[in-house]
Amino acid sequence: MPLLVKICGITSMLAMETALDAGADMVGLVFFAKSPRNVSLATACTLSGRTCGRAAVVALTVDPSDDFITEVMANLKPDLIQLHGQETPQRVADIRQRFKVRAMKVIGVADKADLDVVPAYAAVSDLLLLDAKPPKTAEALPGGNGLPFDWRLVAGLDPGRPVMLSGGLDPDNVADAIRLTRLSGVDVSSGVESAPGVKDPDKIRAFVAAARQAAAAAAGAGDKR
Ligand SMILES: O=C(O)c1ccccc1N[C@@H]1O[C@H](COP(=O)(O)O)[C@@H](O)[C@H]1O
After folding, report:
1. pTM higher than 0.90 for the full model?
2. Which of 13, 58, 105, 135 could make an SS bond with 125 (beta carbons 3.0 to 4.6 A apart)?
């Protein structure tokens, strides 16, 4: 299966076009008021209109209410909803069933014990995303903090669903991350920015190119991912 590459936290048409031209498989739009990458539903609709099916549109939410998901589904019609909060497996299952939407549940990882929940979430999610656990500071976001975790904890993890990696990835370290973890995809936000919330076109292109190169090298080396 080809490596999935997601560029998250897109806030401008330039960033959207750059991600699409670079060959990203997924583009993420953040709905979280405290984030520098937060977009309104109207902006998200305008940005996603540019994709024309070239990449999957991901609505990033944090503990969303049913009312909010209803609004997102009616207007944006995303291909995938990213659940980046404290959603339980039951809540993930309910969202998928009620809204007929594919769900990517995020699991925060700091140590091995954090992976105990993987089977329960894999049973109810279409994809999983492993991200660094946010630091316990007042200003930390649930994600998008640019912090990596110990990738050795998740190397070769295969719960029967595609698993993506995020947390502090950037154009310089993504190849190592792919080589070491052998997961299904990579997701980046702050690592392709020039300032919080401002995507850097050169970094987006460099990230996608480095990820594709590493995936091709892994495939050449017989890694079936
Ligand atoms: O990007 C944000 O602002 C954000 C806000 C709230 C929840 C998640 C958020 N981003 C996601 O976090 C990970 C890692 O980001 P980074 O590359 O370390 O900056 C990524 O999945 C983003 O989609």
Report:
1. yes
2. 105
